[in-house]
Specification:
This protein is of the alpha/beta class. It has a domain at 58-371: Metal-dependent hydrolases (TIM Barrel), CATH 3.20.20. The protein contains 12 helices and 21 strands. It has helices spanning 79-88, 106-117, 136-148, 167-180, 191-203, 211-215, 218-235, 247-258, 270-273, 299-311, 354-363, 370-384, and strands spanning 4-15, 18-27, 30-35, 43-48, 53-56, 58-60, 91-94, 97-99, 124-125, 128-130, 153-157, 183-187, 239-241, 263-267, 316-317, 402-406, 411-412, 431-432, 435-441, 444-448, 451-452. Strands 1, 2, 3, 4, 5, 16, 19, 20 and 21 form a 9-stranded mixed β-sheet that branches. A 7-stranded parallel β-sheet has the order 8-10-11-12-13-14-15. Strand 2 (18-27) and strand 3 form a beta hairpin. It is globular. The structure holds dihydropyrimidine-2,4(1H,3H)-dione (DUC) and zinc ion (ZN) (2 copies). One zinc ion is lined by residues 187, 242-243. One zinc ion is lined by residues 62, 64, 320, 322.
Amino acid sequence: MQRFDLIVSNADIVTVGGRFNADIGVRDGRIAALAHGLDPALADQVIDAAGRMVTPGGVDAHCHLDQASDDGSKGSDDFLTGTRSAACGGTTTVIPFAMQFKGQSLDEAVADYHRRAEGQASIDYAFHLIISDASPAVVKEQLPRMVEAGYTSFKIYMTYESLKLSDREILDVLDAARTLGALSMIHAENDDCIAWLTERLLAQGKTAPRYHALAHSAIGEREATHRAISLSELVDVPILLVHVSSRAAVEQIHWARGQGFNIFSETCPQYLFLTAEDLGIGDDFHGAKCICSPPPRDADSQKAIWNGLANGTFTIFSSDHSPYNFDDPQGKKLHGEDASFDRIPNGIPGLETRLSLLMSEGVLGGRISAERFVELTATAPARLYGLYPQKGTIAVGADADLVIWDNDLDKTLRHVDLHSAADYTPYEGFKLKAWPAWTLSRGKPVWAHGAYCGTAGAGRFLPCAAPFPAQK
Ligand code: DUC
Ligand code: ZN
Ligand code: ZN
C-alpha cells in the first residue's frame, strides 16, 4: 500500500485538458496519485478541498526581483519579499530577469542574480536573460553556453537608453535564438517616437505623471510590434511580444498569426484593470503609482485585451511586477515630487494580485473558462519556457504546486493585506470574488489560513529546457 505525505481530498481539479473531481496524493514533493477515494489513513496530512477548485500553482513568467539599476533607483521587492508575496497570491514559480549591463558578460550577470536569490526565495525560480549588449562574443560564445546551462529565454528592449538594441543587433540575437532553439521576448515600443513626444510635451510644460501615457503612444507600440514581427519573419524564428497593452498592437499580432507566423504574446493585469486615467488628473503626483511601460490605455483597448485572452490571441498572462515604492527617494520620488514624468521609475506591483484578479473578473465574471485561466497563468508559460510538465499542470509526476481556491468571496483588495515590500497597490479598493485558500509549493503549504507559511531558501533554481528545436 503506497503512503503519501499529503492527500488533498475532494478536489475540483482544473487542467487545460479538462476538469474532474479527484483526490491528489503527494509524495516527496510530487503528485504521486490522482484517484477517487484515497484512504486518509495512508497520509501524514490531509487537506479537505471540500469540492473547491484546485488549479496548478501559478507560473509568473514576467517579474523583476532585486533588479540592479544604474540611476540610483531601487525596486521594492527582492527575492525574499517578492516570492513571499507571489506565494500568498497563488504563484509557485517565478521567472525574473538576470539583467546584463552593457559591457558585462552574461556569466557575470547570471552569477550576480543567483547570489541575489540564494537563501531568499520561498518558491521555485528560473531566470530569463536581459541582453543589453549584443556583441559578437555575447551572441556567438556566451549565449550558447547560457542555453546549455538552462537560461533559454532572452529579453530584448526596443526602448530604454541603457538597454535598447538596434534592429541590426536584434537580428543577431534572433538568429542566435533560432540556432539554439531559445525564445526571444520583445519589449516593443518605438524609442524615437517616445523621445520625440516626450521632448514636445516637456517643452509645452506638460510634465505631470499623466503625460507618460501620451509619450508612450499606442501608435509607437503598434509600429514596434509590427517591426518585431517583421524581424522575426526575416530570421524565421518564433518571438514573444511581452506586456501587450493596446488594441493596435493586438491587431498586429492577430494579423501575424493569420499569416502563419510563429508569434506568441503576453498581456498583464494593468491592461485589463487600469486605464490612462489612473495616471492622474491635473498635476497630481499620485498618478506616478500607475506609471509603467507600456502604459495602461483606454476602455477600448481593455476590451481588445479581454477578447485576446478569450480567443487565444494571447499565449500567457504575467504580472510584469516591477514595483517602486511611492513614498521613497529611491522609488517613484527618485527626483522629487515635482519631477517630470520621464524621470519617474517605470513599473508597478502585481505578483500577488495577478491570479485573483483574473479568477474574479475573468473566470467568475464569465469572460474566460477555468481551463483557459490555467492555460494562461500556468501551463502555457511552463511550456514556453521549458519547465513543463514539472511545472504548470496537475498530473502524476508533476511537482505538487497547487492552489485551492476560495471562490465565493466578497473581498476588498487592500495594500495592508498584501505581502510585497511595495508601499501601495494600484488596485486598492477593487472588489475580489476569489483568493487562494491554500498555496502548496512542492507539497508544502506556503499560504494557508490567511497567513504566509513559506520558508526563505526553500525555493529551488529551475534550469529551463530550450522550448524549440535548434535550427541550422
Ligand atoms: N516596463 C518594463 O519594460 N519593465 C518593467 C516595468 C515597466 O514598466
Ligand atoms: Zn518591458
Ligand atoms: Zn518587465
